[in-house]
Design a protein that fits this description.
heterodimer; A: about 325 residues; mainly alpha; 13 helices; B: about 300 residues; 12 helices; about 0% strand; elongated
Chain lengths: ~325, ~300
């Protein structure tokens, strides 16, 4: 097991490096000059040149790339092009909100999605399955921000049960929890739809297998057949794809943070984009990349945990 | 093939007849799948509504009217008016044109790019395959919305840029599916047969491999049109897709959220349009998958 974990961790290094390279390419190599963009079209040539010099944009690209990696290795996320504030501080302030939201949403998605999907599979083609299939397809089609708006209107404005906007005070567990529920539900329900669909088809696949019939033939109760025999194998594809959906969740977390006016990486990134603050944008993307690589790693490890065959290979 | 149709002659070659009845059976399966029929119907309705938007909208989507600011729905303005007094219904109809154009154009772009990549990678094998598919893996490891946002932040807003950004994002998943399908077909005997009579690489890929994965590609086209429309809405909602005054469902919702409490119709109706459109293409894709994938038919 230790060998498997070490191997997986080592494998994330090239992936992370590739993603960093993509971030660098997109931000630096695509047409458009960051310095001109930051200062606006009417800036004097001297001001643009000074900023280019300060950002090191006149150096050859390979050198810029190495400097980008070197700064990251030292944990230096740079300073904002707009207000010269250290980006690391901004990220440290915003990251906990995004972490809190993403994990709460994953929790909702998995704890709700798997049982619903398994239940749908056991009631195949009956009424509950039909309702579940329609509902999950609607969940798959609704943009997260629209679901968020509907929840704000219903729960926040009409019923006045929960605060509709803001991130709450992180030092007060009660306050931050009430502010977390609606956004987490928004993202979580979107994810529930995908997980339930997946769990349903994985279960159906397994339920058709011979060993399940054997288990039934032995006279084991249906509940035990489902939970001890079928679900165990069905969990393998579920875990693998939950990781993929977890990554997709990060994209939707950006719009969710905007809808609920929550502080977070998404808000920081979009703000940087609209202000053309390339350094902040680049560093935020690096943190997101770290996030994605982390989720993929956890998925891989969970995969090894539910499928013993994975560990023994190579 | 048409010559054989309907003629019950013993000399008629078996293949065309079977392929006709197979097509017939697929169509029957499709019609028997309620979700697929609903999806096809909705998709056609949405396309027609968008094409005939100028005839259907009673108001100009861009004409402002200060006196009609944020008026709730009434008999003339059936879905209410926005902060500039513009007709929400007309704007939703016109926005549908943009969403569909972006959805379809970016899927065509991404599909062409991805199919070519996947086909070449799967067919050629070796180092080229490894390189191309590693690239696809890396691109797929990153949330597409974030990549799209970054590309657009650099390129700036505009319809053709949104199409380019979304098209690029859609190509890796396309490439992956086509790559898998190519690998499965590559070892089939009919390919060696074609090769043995001197068919070149391009001809083999174009006339022998590609037509055999039309089913997979049709499903992808439908499902990815749904996600392209969803991503476009998200980009415009964030403020990096299509800029006002051109209406899109995403930027209408973005404008609507500032008046969420006193004019909720500004956000609710465009959102409903997104939901129904994306749902239609997803239903269609699901239906096509059921029809074309015999393994799932039980």
């Amino acid at each position: 097991m230790i060998r498997y974990v070490a191997q997986r961790i080592l494998l994330t290094v090239p992936v992370f490096l590739s993603v960093l390279t993509i971030v660098f390419i997109v931000v630096r190599v695509l047409p458009g000059d960051p310095a001109t963009a930051a200062l606006g079209d009417y800036a004097s040539k001297e001001a643009v040149d000074a900023l280019r010099l300060r950002l090191g944009l006149n150096d050859p690209l390979p050198l810029q790339y190495l400097r980008f990696l070197g700064d990251l290795l030292r944990g230096d996320l740079g300073t904002s092009m707009i207000n010269s504030a250290p980006i690391g501080d901004q990220i440290a302030h915003n990251l906990p909100y995004t972490l809190e939201l993403t994990f709460a949403a994953l929790l909702v998605g998995v704890t709700l999605g798997i049982p619903v999907g398994v239940y749908m599979a056991t009631k195949r083609n009956a009424f509950p399955d039909y309702v579940g299939r329609v509902a999950s397809l609607v969940g798959l089609s609704v943009p997260a921000f629209y679901l968020g708006i509907l929840l704000i209107l219903l729960v926040g404005v009409q019923l006045k049960w929960l605060p509709a906007i803001g991130g709450g005070d992180l030092t007060s567990p009660g306050d931050s929890l009430t502010h977390l529920i609606l956004p987490a539900l928004t993202l979580g329900l979107v994810m529930t739809a995908s997980v339930a669909r997946l769990a349903r088809s994985a279960m159906l696949n397994v339920l058709g297998q011979d060993y399940v019939r054997t288990a039934r033939a032995k006279g084991i109760g249906e509940r035990s057949v489902i939970s001890r025999h079928a679900l165990r194998s069905a969990l393998i594809p579920i875990v693998a794809l939950t990781g993929i959906w977890g990554v997709a969740l990060i994209g939707d977390s950006v719009t969710t943070e905007l809808v609920f006016s929550r502080p977070g990486l998404g808000k920081l990134m979009v703000g940087a984009m609209l202000q053309r603050d390339y350094t902040t944008l680049q560093s935020t993307m690096v943190i997101y990349a770290l996030f994605v690589v982390g989720i993929n790693l956890v998925t891989d490890l969970a995969y090894g945990f539910v499928d013993p065959r994975v560990k023994t290979q190579g | 093939m048409n010559a054989a149709a309907g003629v019950r002659d013993r000399d008629t070659p078996a293949l065309p007849k079977r392929s006709r009845s197979q097509r017939r059976r697929m169509w029957d399966t499709f019609l028997g799948n309620k979700a697929a029929v609903v999806g096809l119907g909705l998709t056609l309705a949405i396309v027609l509504l968008s094409i005939f938007a100028p005839l259907l909208a009673s108001q100009d989507p861009l004409v402002q009217d200060g006196a009609g600011r944020l008026k709730p729905p009434d008999d003339v303005f059936r879905l209410g008016r926005d902060a500039f007094g513009r007709d929400v219904l007309a704007r939703i109809l016109y926005a549908g044109r943009i969403s569909l154009v972006i959805g379809i154009a970016s899927v065509i772009l991404g599909g062409t790019l991805g199919t070519t990549l996947g086909l070449v990678a799967g067919y050629s094998g070796g180092k080229l395959e490894g390189l191309l598919m590693r690239g696809v893996d890396v691109l797929m490891a990153f949330p597409s919305l974030l990549l799209g946002l970054t590309v657009l932040a650099v390129l700036g807003p505009g319809i053709e840029k949104v199409i380019l950004a979304i098209g690029l994002l859609l190509s890796p998943p396309f490439a992956r599916v086509v790559h898998g399908a190519t690998l499965a077909l590559k070892e089939q005997e009919f390919l060696s047969a074609a090769r043995s009579i001197g068919a070149g690489h391009i001809r083999l890929m174009r006339l022998h491999i590609l037509p055999n994965m039309v089913g997979e590609i049709a499903v992808l086209l439908s499902v990815f049109t749904a996600s392209a429309i969803r991503v476009e809405a998200s980009l415009s909602f964030i403020g990096l897709g299509i800029s006002p005054p051109t209406p899109t469902w995403g930027n209408m919702i973005r404008d609507g959220t500032t008046h969420l409490i006193n004019a909720p119709w500004l956000s609710i109706f465009p959102g409903l349009a997104i939901l129904v459109t994306v749902l239609a293409f997803n239903l269609l894709g699901d239906g096509l998958r059921d029809v074309l994938d015999p393994k799932l038919q039980q």
